[in-house]
Amino acid sequence: MWGLSIEATRSGSLAFTENMLLSLIVPFDHNPGVQQAKKQDFSKRKLTDLPPELFARAKQVESLDLQVNQLKQVSLISQLENLKELFLSWNKLSEFPLEIKELGCLEVLYLNQNSVECIPNGVFAMLGKLRRLNLSSNLLSELPSDLQKCVRLEFLNLSSNRLRDLQGALGLPKLRELYVDNNRLVELPAEVFLNTGLADFRAAGNPLRRPPEEVCAGGLKEVRSYFSQMGAGGQTQPAPRVKVMFLGSSMAGKSTLCRSLRAGHAVEVGVTDRTVGIDICEVKKQGVQMLFWDFAGQEEYYLTHHVFITPHAFVILAINLASYSISEPQSFKDNVSFWINNMMMRAPCSVVLPVGTHADQCPDAHLKEEDINRKAKAMLEDRRSKLEQRISNIKDKDDPTPFTKQLNRLYQLTTYNLTLLDVMLMDCTKPAEIEKLQEHILKHIYNKDLFPNLERTLPQSYQAAESSVRDLKRNKNTPEHGIVDINELKKHTLVKDLDTEDWHSILRYLHRIGIIVWYEEIEALRVKVFTKPSFLITLFKTVVRHDLVRCLEEIPHNILQKVNSLGRQRGAWVSNLKGKATLHNSAIAALAHRSLAQLDVAKDKSIMRALAGSTNKEGELVCLLRHFDICLPTTLASPLNPNAQEFDPGREWSPSRPSVPTLVNRDTAYLFPSYLKDAGVVSNMWGEDNMEDLRVTVYFLPEIPYGVFHRLIVRACSLYSTYWVGRDYFLLGYSSTLVLLRQGSEGEDQYIQIRCRRPAASADFRRSWDLILAVMWKLSELAEQWPGLFQITCSPCRQQGCLHDFQWSDIRNLGGLDIYKVYVP
Ligand SMILES: Nc1nc2c(ncn2[C@@H]2O[C@H](COP(=O)(O)OP(=O)(O)OP(=O)(O)O)[C@@H](O)[C@H]2O)c(=O)[nH]1
């Protein structure tokens, strides 16, 4: 069968249910007249009042669709006394229409996307038959207590309101779906989860303390486990803890700040002492436990940074004022906006404190401080107004309903947003200034508006597990790699009688807060935990580093022997890295042996073998790098990726199809797109662009996240054998069909373009287009890793005769399949 069929694996089954609802509920009637009267559709008519014809046979109406109108009230609706379903979504209701309480037969009520602030008591007590209630995207700050009378309620959507508690939603025995994301909830009630039939639940975007957001992120199963452990073993309130990340360009003064704060006095860092990867340490000050993460400023490390940037962090953005220039826009971009955008895209609700270092070397420090404050505020203001513009563009559409999900995301981004503090000037060489900075940081951390979920309530078992991990780390007998079998770790903790699922829930929580690292989704690492996350960074540093060529050149003979290689091979490794951005499997193993030789890891032969791999087995290091799309298996000859078979135009393509497992042999090598130097070969093969080329240009706001294009290359390689790759170009080939991927910019707009030659035979057209769509799917999957990325606009070419009808519909389908960020203008 021809054609790309994207399975709705991630699609909202809810949307389907809602669309199908009318036909499912209204019983089949052979008389079309009666059937018509039962089901009335007045949606999308710009109505400001209920239409008079509705009342002609008022008692017969059972289902009424009034979505997407301009209704501010629904007077006389109580005349429809047999109404079972009422759809009032996307109207202009600011007050709850009290007449609705007269509709005692109502089973379905949709009032989402209005501006209702309050629902008085006395309404739901009369609506005992209600099964589905959607109140999302309103302005509700509390629920009426008589909502509990709706004992038949199965579906309750309260997302995107201003709710502070869920007391009104307790005691609903039939509830199966509950959505409360984007509210102001601090606690969730245990009763909703324990011994209930709840099957689907969402609570993201709330300042939660009980359970903490890191538990909620694991979904319903983990929330249940949390409450049941709380009931079984009691609860505790651990000391407040914050992850403090030091970010900024190279030589900005991050390590100086980090080490000085840790020591409590000014520490001098040598000019040649560059951070490689990330340094992690724990500091306790005035009752707050701070996890300091010092990120390296050199560009080579940005690629792995995003893996470790987590939400709700306090970010110290170091800016070297001595090298900052007010008159050069690029200076603001490199030193400030790049980092702020990065945080907004990856951790949209973090708090950023810009620290202007080297103030002592800068007579005009105050001018620069002012300039940075002004430009940074303008940048956030610009983002805010773009978001508002997007929201109003969607709301002004004749039919905004397909964009509901996007709209909710946009609302979330406007309310739950990055906080940028004023620049603080620093001379890092002065102890008094370090002290001042420490006070400043603590003052902000204790500000409940900035860190509403600093305090958390945890089951005793969670706390006990965390303490055990800390003890283990402190224990001198624990090896430096800190890798522990998950069952061994359980034995070390004081929580032995937990069942496996509950134990895994604890591990996931500890992973999310950064105490351990557990990649259960990587087959080779499923039963292992990194109790020392910094070791993982040490591992990444083995191959992701600015001086990799030198490291390869310096591999000594004794290490070469460990991986069965000679100096001749080392020479080839260097030239392949320089010329093809490719590292041989044995080269990675040798690098791992070398960089871990100084650590006690080398003594543990089995751990070492597992990490570094061998000629016929992929090492865990490579598994990790592949997991984060940093490299892909290849051969040193063309085609680059002979294993890739995911896309077969003769068969249906589905994004859920598992990729082909990698066979490792003596020739296996890995391509690291980030080490590619130029794109000459690709552009030579492709030649000039043609006006008739099929193409889709994907624009990103605020910008393309760092590394997305290279990760896209890695993912797209699983579709079909590649022909060649370059730094900003990539050519994917299936027989005579070539698909070009290119990243570029037009003024301020950054884009990735996917291009394909217009086939001569129309029979081949579909195949080319399917390849483009498969790449787009990969791109949209990737984009989900940057939750604050607020717009991706896909714009297919529009030349006459080039855009077929199915192109539009396919892209719309992609957009409809839960890829909220894909937006077709
Ligand atoms: N005079 C002066 N020197 C500073 C100040 N802050 C940092 N330095 C020096 O600037 C140099 C770079 O500082 P680092 O802290 O290593 O910079 P970094 O941001 O960690 O750099 P990377 O490791 O490349 O990411 C060091 O030699 C510091 O001693 C300051 O406020 N005044």
TrEMBL record:
Pfam families: LRR_8, Roc. It comes from the Eukaryota. The keyword Nucleotide-binding applies. Residues 235-448 form the Roc domain. One of its GO terms (cellular component) is cytoplasm. SUPFAM superfamilies: L domain-like, P-loop containing nucleoside triphosphate hydrolases. Keywords: Leucine-rich repeat, Nucleotide-binding, Repeat. One of its GO terms (molecular function) is nucleotide binding. The keyword Repeat applies. PROSITE patterns: LRR (PS51450), ROC (PS51424). SMART domains: LRR_BAC, LRR_TYP. One of its GO terms (biological process) is regulation of signal transduction. InterPro entries: Leu-rich_rpt, Leu-rich_rpt_typical-subtyp, LRR_dom_sf, LRR_domain-containing, P-loop_NTPase, ROC, WH-like_DNA-bd_sf. This is Roc domain-containing protein.
